[in-house]
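Assemble and predict.
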Amino acid sequence: MLLETKNSTGLLGVSPTGIAPTIDDVALHASVSRQTVSNVLNAPDRVRPETIQRVRLSIDTLGYRVNRNARNLRTGTSKVVAYRIPPLAGRLNSVMDTFLHEMTEALELIGYHVLLFTSDSATGEIDTYRELAAQSAIDAVIFAGTERQDQRPERLVASRVPFVSFGRTWGSLNHSWVDVDGRAGTRTAINHLLASGHRRFAWLGSTTGSVVKDERELGVRETLQAAGVPAADLHVLNLVDEPNTDRRLVSAVLDLPNPPTAFVSMSDLQALTVLSELDSRSIVVGRDAAVVGFDDSPIAAYAGGGLTTIRQPITTVTRELARLLKNQLTDPSSKPEGVLLEPELIVRRTG
Amino acid sequence: MLLETKNSTGLLGVSPTGIAPTIDDVALHASVSRQTVSNVLNAPDRVRPETIQRVRLSIDTLGYRVNRNARNLRTGTSKVVAYRIPPLAGRLNSVMDTFLHEMTEALELIGYHVLLFTSDSATGEIDTYRELAAQSAIDAVIFAGTERQDQRPERLVASRVPFVSFGRTWGSLNHSWVDVDGRAGTRTAINHLLASGHRRFAWLGSTTGSVVKDERELGVRETLQAAGVPAADLHVLNLVDEPNTDRRLVSAVLDLPNPPTAFVSMSDLQALTVLSELDSRSIVVGRDAAVVGFDDSPIAAYAGGGLTTIRQPITTVTRELARLLKNQLTDPSSKPEGVLLEPELIVRRTG
């Protein structure tokens, strides 16, 4: 049987052997008030560094423990948010690694940790959310890459699991999300390339259908159309994420009588394929051809001596997601909110 | 006050309102044995999919909950492992993103989840481990990038926090680790380049001192020395992780009277700098020059039409780390074990 000691600040110490030291013992030992000890544990920014050091030393010396499981059991919260780390297979979107880092940091600022899991399927993903929530192992869910037929919002609402998504509500259900306007991103890129004098274009999408791809392609198409560029001067290449095959697709379009001179792609990684094919033909990128990536992932600054790319404002995305999540978890009357952010064209050497 | 219902299988249901449904209620509702319900929750691989579906339906219908916090409080475990997600600033090592994915998967196979946190400092990292462990929020720690003066092993042992590391014990302390033999990796790369006829080399390390860098550089130096290559024919470039500066460093060495023809670098990303500089000088990579990266990160297959690189066996690394961690957590008599894995040279177009 566990012995529990509870005190007026609401902190709970648990010891399997007998009487545990209380927050009062720590306060006495450190010659501070009970409130100061509580602040060191819960709001250290309110306490001077020297005091934090002294209180921590007392906590260590006495072996005082705030048992999170006991607190969680009492409050019904875990202060943990689940996130499915995307599969590695054919993963071209290294911006999601940046997203995970920034999300971890943004959630820490509101007092939450990220719990990771993997899943091979959409069904498995939803089951895991529900099981973790049912076990009170998580308070909420963050997921990414919403699709038109996305099951997750509806299922999570039905299971009463709070969530926010990186990706819009494409279905009818209203929920809180943050998204980056990919259509606006490719529009800016195409306008930039038109201003640089390009008249023949290639859009490098992927065979994997996604609403993200559709939006970005739409931005390309509508901007070229508005500028009066004939449809025949836009080559749409759907890459398969296999380097040799993709390179042959790029090669084939360069073999045409009037090949495109401006390439806009779904990701920075895809842009690498174009860069190496252009280099192998001694076409000088930045002078005779332009290549624009998407994401401004870490490789962009290095690729081709500096890849022009469409930057996703990931830090803002994650701060907004954390804000919407906090609203939802702390204010039951809060309304669903959607935040659409504009990406930014980062012009470097390649275009 | 919370009401708790406990039953013979050791599962615990908690309800803030009154009597919670028990595992027996679920078993009765689903017309299965209590053991089968327990298996569905704890060892679903032992149960037929139809039965799992039926039991899950009963669990949902009755609102049965295995409260993880209650279980954790009772067992003193959390089934969670802490991992510090590395800072983004100047992060060239995208192999750590792969590592995190593979680690999450490997830990799931032994029944654990990864809890992420960030930290700006080594001291902050250790403090977070201790605090999470003290709160029983985690059972163990996995960390990466061990250094010679690493404080973490000693501090974690002192705090009785179980851990394993991706990176050797460089100090005197004995603990369980898995590492990749970087020295063997660059040795293999240099021997491959010597066999291809190269006689003048460049090693691209970094100004950031690390034991990982030292080991890899040692592999380059000792292999060239053993092959009788004069020390003057090895150019050591310490890149600063700033693309323009790094490119000028590479450019300067190519301006020398007898420039190197073979480049081995600390990471695939650094290799991009070399590739773009060689391309801009119309030096044909794969014919007149060779470039070898490190990691076989996702970019390697795309860069330069296929970057030759030294692959780290990340899946094996994470499975071994999970095995060593499980030993430590389940068998108090288990001894510290170190596992050193050989990387593999993946030969593609660039060398």
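Chain B touches chain A through 61 residues (CB under 8 Å).
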